[in-house]
Amino acid sequence: MKERAHGRIIGAIVVGLAAASLMATPARSAELPQKFVHHVYFWLKQPDDASDRARLIDGLRKLAAVKTIRSHHIGIPAATDREVIDRSYAVSWMLTFDSKADQDAYQVDPIHLRFVDQCSPLWARVVVYDSEAIE
């Protein structure tokens, strides 16, 4: 019994030290393999239409098949409320690429062109933020 309790205490200490170590390690962008981020915000013509939002999200899921995309994230405004947060958009689409050249290839990929053709009637406004990693 004492050995089992002692083992649990040691285990808890090890887990606690590991967690503290992870929290103390700062994130460094140089460790991310992606060099180029493409972040798109969409405002729908009919922002309260759930089917339009679903169609846009479905289109983005299909768009994720473009081969030069390293990673992607589809999102909606988070339930955060601070003065600096803009929650007016309907859907966001964040992509990472290994290079600007890969992002350029994405722009002319037939899958991307089809997405624009099929989904652009849904949106009233699109804003894009591109950024490159600092070496």
Short overview:
With 135 residues, the chain is an alpha+beta fold. It has helices spanning 2-24, 50-63, 100-108, 110-119; strands at residues 36-44, 71-75, 91-97, 123-132.
Structural account:
The chain has 135 residues and is an alpha+beta fold. It has a single domain, classed as Alpha-Beta Plaits. It is 41% helix and 23% strand. It has a four-stranded antiparallel sheet with strand order 2-3-1-4. The longest helix has 23 residues, at 2-24. Mean pLDDT is 85; it is low at 9-23.
Mean pLDDT: 85
Structural class call reads alpha+beta
Beta-strand content: 15-25%
> pLDDT below 50 for ≥5 consecutive residues: which ranges?
9-23
Domain Stress-response A/B barrel: 36-131
InterPro entries: Dabb, Dimeric_a/b-barrel
Organism: Rhizorhabdus histidinilytica
Protein name: Stress responsive A/B Barrel Domain
